[in-house]
Amino acid sequence: MTDYSDKNLKTLWFNSHYYRANLLWGNDTLRFRDIHKFDEKFKSDYLDEKGTSSKCDYYTLPVVDGFAWGSENDIAGLRFKTKGEEGIVDIAGRDPVIDDGEKGKLKVSWPLETSDASLDLVFNEGSITISMHTWKGNEWFLILSPDNKKIPVTNIDRRQLSYCFRDFSYSVFCREGEFMVDGNSYLKIVPEKGRICLYFTDNDYEE
Fold this sequence. Notes:
Blueprint: E1 9-15, E2 19-26, E3 29-37, E4 61-65, H1 66-69, E5 78-84, E6 87-90, E7 97-99, E8 106-111, E9 118-123, E10 127-133, E11 140-144, E12 153-156, E13 160-165, E14 168-176, E15 178-180, E16 187-190, E17 195-199
Antiparallel strand pairs: 1-2, 2-3, 3-4, 3-5, 5-6, 5-11, 7-8, 8-9, 9-10, 10-17, 11-16, 12-13, 13-14, 14-17, 15-16
């Protein structure tokens, strides 16, 4: 994976029946730039009525939308952060190691710069699991800071993140870890025993 431009940005997509997710790394940092949930009950504008213009818009359900919630100079996203001497800082790492050898699953291991630790992500059909191994630093977490854009979150609960987009309500669940509002950002996701597990299908989630 090589960036053809001089921005040194690299990206990776995972698509399943229930969601899509996009990782973006560059300048030694990693973030979720895009996560959209898929739900067959979310009807297309053209399911019952035909299109009448030369432009058709198709939508999925945004959980993270780096394009719509960011700006030209600042791509919005869920960023991996920790507490440093000067406050909250990005976690820094080297190039991730990608393993797509198992059907329906994607594994990403991100070796960190300052230690032998690694941040490991596993993408499955209905979930994303994030875990930190041999981490000896301060607490780590994910932060969403949109660029002053109104995002469709309606409620932030410890285990459930609720949205409403185009009059359609949907949720993402946290089986391991916790959603919370942080004073320096819009949303903070903290691990539980070193793990965060996000679920995108209601059927598989149990409190």
